[in-house]
What does this fold into?
Amino acid sequence: MNPLAQPMRRIGATRVLLGARELEYFAGCDYLGLGWEPKLLAAVANAVLGEGVGVGASRRTTGNHPLYGELERALQRFFGVRAALLTGTGYTANWVAAEAMAGRFSHVLMDERSHTSVQQAAGVLGAKVQRFRHRDPEDLERVQRRLPAGSRIVLMTDGVFARDGSVAPLREYRKRLRPSSWLWVDDCHGVGVLGRRGRGSVEFEGVLAERLIQTLTLSKAFGVQGGVILGDADVIEAAMERSPCFAGSTPLALPLAAGALVSVTQLVSDSERRERLMSHTKRVKVRLVSCGLLDVATPGPMFFVDASPRLAGRMKRHLLNQGILPPWIHYPGGPASGYFRFALCSEHTPQSVENLLEVLEAVGKPK
Ligand SMILES: Cc1ncc(COP(=O)(O)O)c(C=O)c1O
It folds into this structure.
């Protein structure tokens, strides 16, 4: 069976073409609609014409265009961290950081629902991996208690979980971890979205940057593509020096770096989009909790509906009737049979959010 989804074409921040049919889109991860922001698109187009597309070599050889350093400095300022390093994707940000830190830890404490890229990176670290129950600081403590004194510990987790918008209790983890332990947060879904300045779950939770590694993607709220590692200078230096993946791969295409620079310096800091997104999120989640479709109103702009085959069929028909794409997906971390994963975008209008809510409330209400 072909595992790929039905081909579709995005034609705006919140619109999609499925075959010949134009539909409203509550999916994907372009949470601030920046993938369609004219300033960003103009920067990408100008870079294509002015700089070309690829640099044709790794940054350790002849591919270190100045734009990469410029973007890294902008990211460093935006996140208020000591150093930043670009990688080809968010997935490889975890891989490259793990190659850099290999041998530094004896034990990984892993949230059992961490993204596959985080789980795979743990394998690269060469430490013993112990899983704790999803977002459960008490279970973390129980698992940690069994580790020998002197263990060199790193806790690895997603910052925001893509399935339901829940946030890892990072502050509580910090409190309970042994004092010399590290925290590794894959914040692909948190950055740009959470925190007063859009610095993600680390800002939202008020966690200090000490012994902290953050990995992120430019392909979601930043509206482009590429990955980033944030950390202290020695972590970033180790990634540049010791990671075969970083040394042996071509960096992200220049037009993407140019687009990301506009995104980081001008767009993601615009709090209006984030405020609109948070207001949509609050409104949708409060309503869905009150009609019983959700258990809790989590902070992230995404949620899922795990429907029986009959309900799923009905939901798909109603969504299509209302001109909304049914976002039915199969993805690790969710029910194997598939589920609806909805995502809000700051650029949805209040009316389109209302339309979605009306369908969900009418169809999904438990009898
Ligand atoms: C939590 C998490 N980490 C990493 C990634 C990988 O990011 P990218 O798509 O930039 O490779 C994703 C992508 O969906 C993700 O959800």
In short: Residues 89-91, 115, 117, 158, 162, 186, 188-189, 217, 219, 227 surround pyridoxal-5'-phosphate (CB under 6 Å).
